[in-house]
Every structure is written in structure tokens, then in C-alpha cells.
Amino acid sequence: MFQVKWIWENLKGYRGRYVFALTLSVVCNILILATPVLSALIVDGYLTGDDALFNIANKKGTLILLILGLIAFTAVKSLLQYVCCMSYEKSSQGVIFSLRTRLFRTVENQDMTFYDEYRTGDIMTRLTGDLDMIRHMLAFVFRGLIESVTLLLAAVVYFFVVDWKMAICILALTPLIFIISFRLKRVVGPVHMRLREKLAAMNTAAQENISGNRVIKAFAREQYEIDKFGRINKEYSAANKAASLKWLSFSPYLEGIAVSLSAVMLLAGGIFLITKSITMGEYIAISGLIWAVSNPMRSLGMYVNDTQRFMASAMKIMDIFYKKPAIKDPENAYTPKEIKGDVEFKNVSFSYGNTKVLKNVSFKINSGETVAVMGETGSGKTTLINLIPRFYDVPGGEVLVDGVNVKKYALKSLRRNISMATQDVLLYSDTIDGNIAYGNSDMPEKDVYKCADFAGASEFIDKMPEGYDTIIGERGVGLSGGQKQRISLARAIAVKPKILILDDTTSAVDLEMEKHIQDSLKNLGFECTKIIIAQRISSTKDADKIIILDDGKIVEMGTHTELLRNKGYYYDVFMLQNEGFERSEG
Amino acid sequence: MARNRYNIDEVLETPFDIRHLKRSFKYMNRHAKKMIFSLVLSIFAAVSGLLGPIITQYALDKTIPAGDIWGLLILVLLLVVTIAVSVIFSNIRARIMTVVGQDIIFEIRTDLFKHLQDLPFEYYDNRPHGKILIRVVNYVNSVSDMLSNGIINIVLELLNMFFIMVFMFFVSVTLALVVLAGVPIFAGIMMLIKRRQRKAWQQVSNKSSNLNAYLQESITGARIAQVFTREEENAEIFDNLSNSYRTAWMKAVKYSNMVAPAVDNISMLVRAAIYAVGLLIISPAGVTLGTIAAMTSYAASFWQPIINLSNIFNNFINNIAYLERIFETMDEPVTICDKEGAYELPEIEGNISFENVTFSYEEGKTVLEDVSFDVKSGESIALVGPTGAGKSTIVSLLSRFYDLKEGRITIDGNDISNVTLHSLRSQMGIMLQDSFIFSGTIFDNVRYGRLDASEDEIKAACKTVCADEFINQMPNGYMTEVNERGSMLSGGQKQLISFARTLLSDPKILILDEATSSIDAKTERLLQEGLFKLMKGRTSFIIAHRLSTIKNCDRIMFIDDKGIAECGTHNELINRHGEYYKLYTSQHEEISV
After folding, report:
1. pLDDT band at A585 (very low <50, low <70, confident <90, very high)
2. Nearest-CA distance from B403 to chain A in Å?
3. Would you state the pLDDT for residue B486?
4. A246, A586, B158, B216: least buried by Cβ within 10 Å?
């Protein structure tokens, strides 16, 4: 019952209200039991009693009072029930609100290993469907359980007061209910786990299909996608049926036993009546309340079933809830307000799994310098720059910023000073203005314009129907590659970082525009270290230092002229890119 | 329609009306036999359940006073039989309806998904994807019970009500009318609550949709948030969205939860009225006390189905907010689809012509105006020009991702709007700017290009695009699991995989849209050999910025100012000293400093 403990912990802030709701549940159910007592006064006194006719004729006042009392009683009872209901809603919503927002923070702060492992649809299922199971547990199952227990206890006590023999006869079947429920619990757990997995799988499949809609259309793979999703949909449907049918294979026994109480009542009560060991009055008193035992018995199985579903979901949530990113603030973190922008790699090695990506890389960049990184696809360029804002921790060597190991920084202090235009441009379905000002939402509009201008984006933005207020599609779909790259560049510049990292940011930009961007980068109006990954000589030639990576190692390092003299990789690339001109002109 | 984002509620364009119900019936109809059978079973179960009290009553009135133990045993046995019948029948019904409910939502989901596959890019570009996702997964799940058990229960409860009403009128017309007098009061209250309740549940669906949208974008964009240290701010936005959802929910349940107390009070008022009317007004003259007693018990049983119905109704109101969203999506027009009488495009030879093509994404903002050109089979065309000039648009139009405003495009003389989309697109190899990677193995990602490709063919394709080497270095080689957000692949590697995918599809027309932008110069050089092999005998369009790629094409088109500014071979355009020449020399200058 670790999950129950966990949920109790997370009730913090709503515990009072929740306990209040539970208490009201008890009160309301006792009131429900009391209702027949009140109406019995009328029925006995005015309908079935021996002096009913006399009472009607002479005690009209009392009758009116009784009727009014009954109305008032119901009004109060239903008001309490309403308050009780709303308290459950309020506290359960409160809990899932705080869980959801906490989960969001946990997810948001995870490192890349987490995102390699968990699929988007899966994480989403945990923050939506699974949380709803928690709500269901709090607002429905626990409530039902406490109400059932109240009814059952009250009825049992009442039965014992009336006649202990009858009470024992009625309770004789209860152990069976418990045995069946216990078996149900064991059997139904794995079924719900499976259902839960299938739901996440479906969420993932649908999510990818929606994100990949362009590729799907490009390859005319609609039918393939329909078939693929159809299979998952079918599996989910089958898992759902299996879960329900598993429950339905138990429910008739539970239901049967619960309803059979009336037969037990008739048999035992009849025999006791015949042997005169109870009176008719006692019999009616007990049979009138038999529902208070049979209803809880009937629901018990359902609650057990739902609890197992809850357990499956809670497990999934807790898995993320307690997840600690490997990359987090160290103790006594270094929190400089601002950094200078020196970057140094000291014998840095790095690998993904068994694949070595960086091997013993060392270099030093002084603040304000511009450094270009070149190398073949997969040579480790992106990995290298990802180490500076500490997206990964290096197992060997050190990455230093301003001479301090990045592991010693508070992540915020470090990253706030670094900005990056990533290779995989990811824009949000927000306005262009909102996208550019992403790192600094209080930014005045004119600064946004300026950044767009720096990035060579202002021209096409101005041509858009609503200019900077144009909402762009998720991931920036609808914009051309070059347009996306420029917005992403503007976004990176906008935060005025001390270290600006551009990962292949101008690859889809035409040459004229690239020239404009090169010029802007030289005159940003604030001092910063620039690290630029690029494929084109035109982007790298003016750098203070050019680093050539090959298979995770630095093979060349120097200025444009130095490297040309070197006749290595850089020279080859230069020749490749220049070749055409020589030929056509020479 | 304006684009939507996470903090904008979606306007419901088609309000709920009776047609939605009819449409739901379409899904239920397929299971009509099972549903009717279930209904019959339920009626038997209910009747059997009603026999119980009668047997008990008989035992108490006759058998027990007579001291007849054997008689009692027989009656108990009979009671057990009725219970068994009732329980077993109910269980069978529940089993059938579970299957029916799941089948119905399976079908709805399938239809919804199929429809989504037909929707054009715009649909996906115009709203956060999380808002589409929630409809496919969560909303569809919500309506299962309503469309299966819900309907049967309504019928059952109505029948139940009807029979009790008949009994009541038999017993006493006056008192029956007293009982029925409660109904209009109840209906009035329900109407009052209903309107607000419906709005409130629509809000809940809106808010949950917003929440889902933001959640999805936050997960996909987690790294960007970290780059810009936006975690705190994003978390606050998420808090607000979660809070709006909570508020909307609380408002909705505020109304929903009113229904039960309302029924409770009204049924009590009715009972009180029976006592009052029966005992105080007409009793001495007319009705017997037994009649009043019977009436109160009937009144109680009459209100039970009403309580049940109002619960079902509550559920309906809540779920209709989801159902209407599902149908709304299904009604989303498929703007680009096979025309009536569309025919299969025969195997493409590759003669393409654009005839006076005019196109705009948005009204009044023409991207291409009166563009005409012809491309011969096997020709390779490079499209160059400033970003946003319309290069991608030209190739998108050729694949018919959008329909033209004016003019026509033909392939081998077939107007592309007259052929089936599938026959058109499946013969084209389009490599988009975004190289989308599906989660799964690298092998499967390449295979996506041609599903029946053999392992050798897949590996050969990867070799051609120089991807073989890095794939072999990955932990599990071709069987390495990758995903869209994952860190396993660099941008260039993603492009290579997506290149191999296109290559594998063996297209008749090849379109490369910035396909190699993230690939380094050396690899690209190697790639070009493969590329030229690939281009041989196929009509191809290449959008690129690197002149080394462009130069080798048969013809170069410089796109600018809504059309083709210049067209010719590399040498022709250089000699022309126009825009292309400027572009060329600028790159030259850049490099040979």
C-alpha cells in the first residue's frame, strides 16, 4: 500500500478538507439510515398503526409538523451531501493540481537520458490519464469505501441490537466476499498494468503520427499508418475488454452473494419466526436495513478493481515523480551573477553507451573570441557544444567556464549565460514575437525587432499577415527551413548571452543572408564568446580559431590561414567548396 | 481560420444538435442486435428481480404464519433461482455491452484517425498537436460508456418509469397526479442547470485541450526550455493552465452535483405531498390508508428511475462536450482529396509542366504568380533564390500538398488534380527540410520508404548515402532504437537516414528540399556520387544553397518575386550576369578571401 501512503503525503494542503469530506460522508450515511426512522413515525402513527384513524382526526398538527420535519431533514441532508461532494471534488482536484504541476517541473528538469528513454506519448499519459485515476481514487473509491464501511458497521451494530442470531446468519456470507475480493485483487492487477501500457502505446502512436504528418504524406503512407494505428487501437481495445471481462468474471459471484442476503434473510428469519425466536417487528426492522449490508458487499469488488487500476497508474506516476535527473545543482553551487565567457575543455572524453563520441578533447577559448567547429557528420560537434551548458556530464576530463568546472555551477547560473540556436530548430506554436522573446519574455518589442533584424528575419516577418503577432505552427511548421533558423537565431541573440552557441544555424539560409548574419554577429552590441558549428567555409573563415573534429578527436586547430597552410581536412573542404569557381572561371 | 495555440480556447464551430445524436446512432446501429439482445436480457433480469419481493411477501403473509417450513424452503429456493437468473442475465448483458462499448469507440477512433490522415498540412499547422492528440485518445475514451450502456439504461429506466406509472394510476388517479406534479418541477430545475452545465463542461474540454497542448510542446521542447532557463516561467504557465482546468472542472461539477440533491428534495416533497393530500385533504372521504401506503412506496420507486436517468443525463451532458469535438474533427473538410473520377496516374515518365500557376497560402498574399515551365523526363532542375521566395512551394505544389488557385500542373500530360493522390505521391520521392525520425529502429525508419524492401536493399540504400558507416558504429547497428527527440542522432545523421529512406522508395520524380544542409562538405561530396546515380533517368528537383550541388544540375531556376527570374544552365546564367551571377560571385568572394 505504498501508493496509498504516497497519495496521503501528496494530500498535503488538502488533508483537512479531505478528512472533512470523509467525515461528512459518515455523517450523511448515518442520516440516510435515519430517514426511515422519521418516516416510520408517520407511517406507524397515521397509516398502519392501530390508532391511525384517531390520530388523523385529532393530531393533525403533529402530522403537519412531522411532514415539515421530514422535508427539512431531507433539505439539510442533501445540503450536507452537496457540501460533501464538493469537498471531495475540491480536495481531489487540489491534489491532482499539485501533483500535475510538480510532475511538470520534474519532467522539465530531466536530462537528455530521460528523454532518450521516455516517449512523449508515454509521459503525457502519466500527466493526464494516470492522474485522472488518482482523482477517481480520491473522489470515488476512498469515498465509496468509507461510506460502505459506515453503512455496514451501523447496520451490523443495529442487527446485533435487534437480534444477534439473525445478525450472525446475515454475516455468515461475508468471509466469502472477502475471499473473492482478495483473489480478484491478485488477478486483476496485471490486467490493469497491461491496459495502462496499451493506453500509453496508443498515445505514443497517435502523437507520432500527428507530428510526422508531413513525412507520411510525402511517402503516401496513410494506409500504412492507418494499419499500424489500427493494430494498436485493436490491442488497446482488447486490453480494455480483457480488463472488464476479468472483472465481470468475478462480479456475478460478489453480486450473487450480496443479493442472496435477502434469501438468507427469508430462510433464517422465516425459521426463527416459525420457531418464535424473533417477532415480526424485529424481522421487518432487520429486513428494512438489509440493503445497508448488501450494497457495500456488492460494491467492495468494484472498489478492489478500481484500486488495482489506481495502483497501476500510481506506479507509473511515481516512477517519474521520484525521478532525479543525474544532472542537477551540486551542493554549495557556484552562483555567479554574470560570467566572463572563457571556455576550456581539458582532456574531455564522452560516450553514448559504448560509442565513444569525444576522445581526449582539449582546447581553450578566451572570452569574446569566435570559434568555429567543423567536422564530418557524427564527428561529435553537437556533443561538444552540448557539454558547455552541461546537458551531459563528462566521465573523463573537465569542462570549464571561467576556469570553473561546469559541474560546480548552479545550472541556472550557468545556462542563463549561455544561449544556443540548436540544429534541430524547435519553435513553439506561439507568436513570432513570443518565440523570439522566449528567453526573456519581458523584452520590449523594439528589442525583438532588433534581434530579428540582426538575424536577418525582419524582412520576411514584416511580410507575414500579422507581422510579429503571426502565430506559427507547432515546431515552426509552415515556415521554410531558413526562416526557422533565423527566428531561432534571433531567439538566441535576444537573451544577450555571454556565450553564444550556434549549431549549424545558417545551413538553410541563402548566401546573401548568411553574409548579413555574419556581419550582425560581429556587431551584436554586447560582448560574447561565440562558438559556431558550420559546414561552410564562408561561416568559419573569420573565426579567431577553427577546430576540426574527426571521429571525436581534434585533428586541426588554428586560424583560417593557418589551417589552409596545413593542407588537412579544412583545406580539403575549402578546395571542395571553391572548386566550382576555379573550374568555371579558370 | 486563425492559428490556435495553447492559451486560446478553440471555438466550437458546429454547435451540438440532433444530428450529432443521429451520427452516434450510426455507430450504435452496427451493434443493434447485440444491444437489443442486451436490453431483453436486462428486462428479464429486472422482472426476475421484481419477483423477489413478491416471493418474500407471500412467505411472510402465508407460509410463515402457517408454520410451513417445507413451504418456506421451497420459496427460498425459488428466491435463489430468481436471484441467479437476475445476476446471470445482468452479467451476460454487461459482458456483451463491454464488448460493444469498446467496439464502438474502436470504430470511432478508427474513423477519426483515418480522417486525420486525409487532412491537409494546414490542419496540422494551424493548431498545437496536443489538441489533436487529446481528441484521438482521451475524448474518444470518454464516450464509450455513454454510447453503449448509457443508451440501454435510458430505455430500461424509461420502461421502468412507465410501468410504475401505470401501477400508480391503477391505485389512485389523484395521488398519481400528485406524484407526477413533481416531474415538471424537476424538469424545470434540470433545464436551468443544464444550460450552465453544458457550457461548463465545454470549458472543461477546452481547458484540458489547452493543457494537453502545452504539455506536449513542453515535452518536445524540453531542451530549448533548458537552454533558455525558462523552466520556472514555463512551470508557471503550466500552473495557470492546470489551474484553469481545475477551475473549469469545479464550476462544471458545481452544477452536475446539484442534480442529485434536487431529485432528492423533490422526491421527498412529493412524498410529503402524498401524505398531506392523502391524509389531510381527501382521506376521510375517499382513499384508504392502504392506498396511501402503497402510493408512497410507488412514489419512491417512481423517483428511483428518475434519479438514475438524471445521472445518465448528467453523464451525457459531460460527454457530449467531448463527442462534439470528435465529430467536429471528423467534419473538418478534406480540402485536398481525390476528385470524383480520379484515375491512377500511370507509371511516371517524368515530363512535367507548370501552366500559368498562381498560388497563395493565404488570401491576398500571392506566392507564385503565373508561373509556367516545362521539364523533360530525366532532367535535373536546381531551384535557387532567397529564402521564402517560393522554392519549397513549387515542389509542394508538384506533390499536390496544396491546390492551385489558378493554372494547372501536368505530369506526362496528366493534370495532377485529376489523378489519385496515392498514385501521384507514391511515385515521388520527396525529401523534406525536416527529417522526421519515427521512434523505432533505424532499420524501420529507412524501410518506411519502401515497406517490402529487403534487408540488403535497405543496407545498400544506406551505403549509397554514406550512412552505413555511422549506423554500424551505433550500439545495435541497424537495430538501434532511435526517437524523434532523442540524442542518438545528430542533425546530419537524421538527414542521411531520411535520404536513404527517399532513395529506397525508388521514386520516378525526386525532390530534395534542403536535403543535405546539415551534412558536412566531405560527406556531401561522397554523397553526390550516389546522388547523381540516383538522379540518372529520373526527373529531379533540388533545392539547395550550396553551389557545388546546384552547378551540376541540367538547369537552374532562380526563383524570386513570385516567379522564375532566371532559368538556364550554370554557364548560361553566369554569362547573363544577373541574380544568379550575383549569388555565385558572392559565395566566391566569401570563400576566396
Report:
1. very low
2. 15
3. 61
4. A586
- Which pLDDT band holds residue B194 (cuts at 50, 70, 90)? confident
B386 vs A512: CB contact, 8 Å cut-off? Answer: yes
Q: How many CB pairs under 8 A join A and B?
A: 500
The residue with cell 576550456 is A344
Q: Cβ atoms within 10 A of the Cβ of B553, count? A: 21
> Which chain A residues contact residue B292 at CB under 8 A?
47
Provide CB contacts within 8 A for B157, sequence distance 6+: B305, B306, B308, B309, B312
Question: What is the pLDDT, as a whole number, of residue B283?
Answer: 60
Interface pTM (ipTM) of the complex? 0.90
Same-domain status, B252 and B357: no
DSSP run (H or E) holding A51: none
CA distance B90 to B97: 10
| Domain match, B378 and B487 both | no
Out of A68, A355, A581, closest to residue B473 by CB: A355
In this structure, of A50-54, A182-186, B535-539, B555-559, the range with the lowest mean pLDDT score is A50-54
Distance from CA of A137 to the nearest CA of B (A): 17
Say yes or no to pLDDT of B285 above 70.
Answer: no
CA distances from B31 to A200, B36, B100, B432, B572 (A): 28, 9, 7, 44, 70
Mean pLDDT lowest for which of A515-524, B2-11, B323-332? Answer: B2-11
User: CB count, 10 Å around CB of A404?
Assistant: 17
User: Do residue B498 and residue B485 come from a single domain?
Assistant: yes
Tell me the pTM: 0.89
For an interface test with B, which of A217, A271, A276 has the most B Cβ atoms less than 10 Å from its Cβ?
A217
For A351-360, A386-395, A519-528, B133-142, which range has the lowest pLDDT when averaged over its residues? A351-360
Q: Is B500 part of a structural domain of the chain? A: yes
Q: How close B561 comes to chain A (CA, Å)?
A: 13
In this structure, are residues A349 and A360 in contact, taking their beta carbons and an 8 Å threshold?
A: yes
B353 shares a domain with B214: no
Check whether residue B385 and residue B263 sit in a common domain.
no
DSSP B343: B
Query: What pLDDT, on a 0 to 100 scale, did the predictor assign at position B284?
Result: 55
Q: Do A510 and B545 touch (CB under 8 A)?
A: yes
* Beta carbons of B448 and B438 less than 8 angstroms apart: yes
- How many domains is chain B built from? 3
The answer to whether residue B70 neighbours chain A at the CB level (below 8 Å) is no
- Residue B238 and residue A104: Cβ atoms within 8 Å? yes
Residue B167 structural domain: 18-331
Residue of chain A nearest B587, judged by CA positions: A511
Report the C-alpha dihedral over residues A389, A390, A396, A397, rounded to 10 degrees: 30
Between A47, A353, A391, which is nearest B289 by CB?
A47
The reply to whether B491 and B517 lie within a common domain is: no
Does the pLDDT value for residue A584 go beyond 50?
no
CB-based contact A233 B250, cutoff 8 Å: no
* The pLDDT of residue A120 is above 80: yes
On whether both B33 and B179 belong to a single domain, the answer is yes
- Which residue is it, cell 420457531? A275
Q: Is B117 on the interface with A (CB under 8 A)?
A: yes
Distance of CA A323 to the CA centre of its chain: 13
pLDDT at residue B339 greater than cutoff 70? yes
Output the nine-digit C-alpha cell for B461: 540504400
Q: Is B546 helix (H, G, I), strand (E, B) or coil?
A: coil
Tens-place pLDDT, residues B126-137: 888 999 999 999
Which of B103, B104, B124, B474 is best to mutate for the A interface (most A CBs within 10 A)? B124
Res A583 pLDDT > 50: no
CA distance, residue A169 to nearest chain B CA (Å): 15
What is the C-alpha separation between A335 and A85, in angstroms, rounded? 48
Chain-chain contact of B218 with A216 (C-beta, under 8 angstroms): no
* pLDDT tens track for B84-112: 999 999 999 999 999 999 999 999 999 99
